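step=encode ok
step=design start
structure_in=
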């Protein structure tokens, strides 16, 4: 029996690689998409911070995704992710709560909303001035291999990719690889060496990823990538 997907309300866009309004950060990545299809605002596809992690996220991973996505959004930086369960969804939610548009790249067409449980989140992304985007045309059902392929778009639109949690095996590695291939920085939140959910993330630190251990270390990374200053707390009194 065919799967029925929820249809999102909002403007649709299609843009080709040669068009003037094609997102500039995606022009020069390895294997740029020939076309992008989306629901929401094309103008939301700007350089930002990708926040990705485990679908079966632990409370630690979810907390890190929320904390650091919020910090970026509060500094006016777009949060980019894949709309998946777990860390991705938390990152999108944090951006929305901070009043900042967010972008989700999907594995299928943007009228083939997956996972279905995040349909409400996707509609709120569109309503808040963000966008869902895909390199696949309308009606293209998501397939296992398309999620790995879309990871290069997440990393390519971002100036830096933050990995908050990843076990073994993990599709998150393809996002890190895509970021490096596109000349983008990879940031990693360290986890406990005894945690299965960090067995994929921690080795990336040994390979040269930038550790994000607190708010200041992320602020420093954002300063390098975006030139934005740390937000100082207002003095009391």
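sequence_out=
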């Amino acid at each position: 029996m065919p799967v029925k997907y929820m249809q999102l309300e909002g403007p649709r866009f299609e843009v080709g690689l040669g068009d003037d309004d094609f997102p500039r950060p995606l022009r020069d990545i390895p294997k740029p998409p020939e076309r992008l299809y989306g629901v929401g605002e094309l103008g939301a596809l700007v350089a930002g911070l990708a926040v990705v992690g485990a679908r079966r996220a632990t409370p630690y991973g979810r907390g890190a995704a929320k904390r650091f996505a919020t910090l970026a959004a509060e500094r006016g930086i777009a949060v980019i992710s894949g709309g998946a369960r777990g860390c991705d969804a938390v990152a999108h939610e944090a951006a929305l709560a901070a009043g900042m548009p967010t972008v989700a790249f999907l594995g299928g067409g943007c009228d083939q909303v997956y996972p279905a449980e995040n349909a409400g989140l996707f509609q709120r992304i569109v309503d808040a001035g963000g966008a869902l985007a895909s390199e696949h045309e309308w009606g293209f059902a998501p397939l296992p291999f398309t999620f790995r392929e879309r990871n290069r778009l997440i990393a390519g639109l971002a100036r830096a990719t933050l990995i908050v949690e990843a076990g073994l095996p993990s599709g998150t590695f393809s996002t890190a690889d895509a970021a490096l291939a596109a000349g983008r920085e990879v940031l990693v939140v360290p986890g406990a060496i005894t945690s299965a959910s960090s067995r994929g993330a921690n080795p990336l630190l040994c390979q040269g990823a930038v550790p994000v251990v607190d708010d200041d270390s992320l602020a420093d990374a954002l300063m390098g990538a975006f030139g934005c200053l740390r937000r100082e707390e207002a003095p009391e009194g």
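step=design ok
step=annotate ok -> Residues 232-237 have pLDDT under 50 and may be disordered.
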